[in-house]
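Figure 6 in text form: structure in, sequence out.
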Protein backbone atom coordinates (compact mmCIF):
# COMPACT_ATOMS: atom_id res chain seq x y z
CA UNK A 1 0.00 0.00 0.00
CA UNK A 2 1.37 3.41 -0.97
CA UNK A 3 1.09 6.39 1.29
CA UNK A 4 2.27 9.85 0.39
CA UNK A 5 1.86 13.58 0.45
CA UNK A 6 2.35 16.53 -1.90
CA UNK A 7 4.47 19.64 -1.34
CA UNK A 8 4.93 22.76 -3.45
CA UNK A 9 8.42 23.97 -4.32
CA UNK A 10 9.47 27.07 -6.22
CA UNK A 11 12.82 27.08 -7.97
CA UNK A 12 14.51 30.30 -9.04
CA UNK A 13 16.75 30.15 -12.12
CA UNK A 14 19.06 32.61 -13.84
CA UNK A 15 20.34 32.21 -17.37
CA UNK A 16 24.10 32.69 -17.54
CA UNK A 17 23.81 33.64 -21.20
CA UNK A 18 21.15 36.38 -21.27
CA UNK A 19 20.85 36.96 -17.45
CA UNK A 20 17.09 36.34 -17.52
CA UNK A 21 15.70 35.41 -14.06
CA UNK A 22 12.52 33.39 -13.62
CA UNK A 23 10.80 31.17 -11.13
CA UNK A 24 9.17 27.81 -11.76
CA UNK A 25 6.72 26.11 -9.45
CA UNK A 26 6.58 22.35 -8.96
CA UNK A 27 4.42 19.97 -6.99
CA UNK A 28 6.53 17.23 -5.43
CA UNK A 29 4.68 14.03 -4.68
CA UNK A 30 6.40 11.98 -1.98
CA UNK A 31 5.37 8.34 -2.16
CA UNK A 32 6.30 5.62 0.31
CA UNK A 33 6.13 1.91 -0.40
CA UNK A 34 5.59 0.82 3.23
CA UNK A 35 9.15 -0.50 3.54
CA UNK A 36 10.82 2.79 4.40
CA UNK A 37 11.70 3.84 0.84
CA UNK A 38 10.45 7.17 -0.52
CA UNK A 39 10.16 8.20 -4.15
CA UNK A 40 9.72 11.80 -5.23
CA UNK A 41 7.74 12.50 -8.39
CA UNK A 42 8.02 16.05 -9.78
CA UNK A 43 4.84 17.45 -11.34
CA UNK A 44 4.28 20.62 -13.32
CA UNK A 45 0.66 21.48 -14.18
CA UNK A 46 -0.26 17.95 -13.11
CA UNK A 47 2.14 16.29 -15.57
CA UNK A 48 5.21 14.33 -14.38
CA UNK A 49 8.43 16.11 -15.40
CA UNK A 50 12.14 15.77 -14.80
CA UNK A 51 13.50 17.30 -11.57
CA UNK A 52 14.51 20.97 -11.87
CA UNK A 53 18.24 20.19 -11.67
CA UNK A 54 18.18 17.89 -14.69
CA UNK A 55 18.77 20.38 -17.49
CA UNK A 56 16.10 23.06 -17.81
CA UNK A 57 16.38 25.64 -20.61
CA UNK A 58 16.01 29.42 -20.50
CA UNK A 59 12.55 30.50 -21.71
CA UNK A 60 14.04 33.71 -23.14
CA UNK A 61 16.97 32.47 -25.22
CA UNK A 62 16.86 28.66 -25.02
CA UNK A 63 20.31 28.34 -23.41
CA UNK A 64 20.97 25.46 -21.03
CA UNK A 65 23.66 27.33 -19.05
CA UNK A 66 21.69 28.08 -15.93
CA UNK A 67 22.17 28.51 -12.23
CA UNK A 68 19.56 28.06 -9.52
CA UNK A 69 19.05 29.83 -6.21
CA UNK A 70 17.86 28.53 -2.86
CA UNK A 71 14.14 28.68 -2.01
CA UNK A 72 13.02 32.12 -0.77
CA UNK A 73 15.87 33.96 -2.51
CA UNK A 74 13.49 35.92 -4.73
CA UNK A 75 11.49 37.10 -1.69
CA UNK A 76 14.67 38.64 -0.25
CA UNK A 77 15.70 40.18 -3.62
CA UNK A 78 12.58 41.59 -5.35
CA UNK A 79 14.73 43.70 -7.70
CA UNK A 80 15.48 40.55 -9.69
CA UNK A 81 11.86 40.10 -10.77
CA UNK A 82 11.36 41.42 -14.30
CA UNK A 83 8.59 43.98 -14.88
CA UNK A 84 7.17 42.08 -17.88
CA UNK A 85 8.36 38.56 -18.36
CA UNK A 86 9.94 37.67 -21.65
CA UNK A 87 7.94 35.43 -23.97
CA UNK A 88 9.17 31.88 -24.33
CA UNK A 89 11.88 31.37 -26.90
CA UNK A 90 10.72 30.06 -30.24
CA UNK A 91 12.87 27.38 -31.72
CA UNK A 92 12.40 27.15 -35.48
CA UNK A 93 11.60 23.73 -36.84
CA UNK A 94 14.15 22.72 -39.41
CA UNK A 95 12.97 20.69 -42.39
CA UNK A 96 14.17 17.13 -42.48
CA UNK A 97 16.39 16.53 -45.46
CA UNK A 98 16.62 13.04 -46.90
CA UNK A 99 19.93 11.31 -46.39
CA UNK A 100 21.59 10.62 -49.75
CA UNK A 101 22.12 6.93 -50.29
CA UNK A 102 25.15 5.61 -52.13
CA UNK A 103 24.43 4.71 -55.72
CA UNK A 104 24.16 1.01 -56.40
CA UNK A 105 26.42 -0.06 -59.20
CA UNK A 106 24.67 -1.96 -61.93
CA UNK A 107 26.25 -5.31 -62.75
CA UNK A 108 28.43 -5.31 -65.84
CA UNK A 109 26.72 -6.78 -68.89
CA UNK A 110 27.73 -10.32 -69.79
CA UNK A 111 28.80 -9.33 -73.27
CA UNK A 112 31.35 -6.88 -71.88
CA UNK A 113 32.76 -9.61 -69.65
CA UNK A 114 33.01 -12.00 -72.60
CA UNK A 115 34.64 -9.37 -74.83
CA UNK A 116 37.30 -8.52 -72.24
CA UNK A 117 37.66 -12.02 -70.82
CA UNK A 118 38.30 -13.95 -74.04
CA UNK A 119 41.43 -12.02 -75.11
CA UNK A 120 42.88 -12.29 -71.61
CA UNK A 121 42.18 -16.02 -71.58
CA UNK A 122 43.81 -16.43 -75.01
CA UNK A 123 46.92 -14.51 -73.86
CA UNK A 124 47.27 -16.64 -70.73
CA UNK A 125 46.83 -19.85 -72.76
CA UNK A 126 49.48 -18.75 -75.27
CA UNK A 127 51.97 -17.88 -72.51
CA UNK A 128 51.42 -21.24 -70.83
CA UNK A 129 51.85 -23.04 -74.18
CA UNK A 130 55.05 -21.15 -74.88
CA UNK A 131 56.46 -21.70 -71.39
CA UNK A 132 55.59 -25.37 -71.00
CA UNK A 133 55.76 -26.88 -74.48
CA UNK A 134 58.10 -24.77 -76.53
CA UNK A 135 60.79 -24.41 -73.87
CA UNK A 136 60.81 -28.17 -73.33
CA UNK A 137 61.52 -28.99 -77.01
CA UNK A 138 65.23 -28.75 -77.91
CA UNK A 139 66.10 -26.63 -80.93
CA UNK A 140 68.25 -28.26 -83.71
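Output sequence:
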Amino acid sequence: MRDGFDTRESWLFECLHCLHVWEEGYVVRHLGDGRGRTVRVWLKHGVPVQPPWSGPCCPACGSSSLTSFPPGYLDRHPELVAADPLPPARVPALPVEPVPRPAVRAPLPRRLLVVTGLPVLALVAYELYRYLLISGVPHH
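Caption detail: Residues 110-134 form the longest helix (25 residues).
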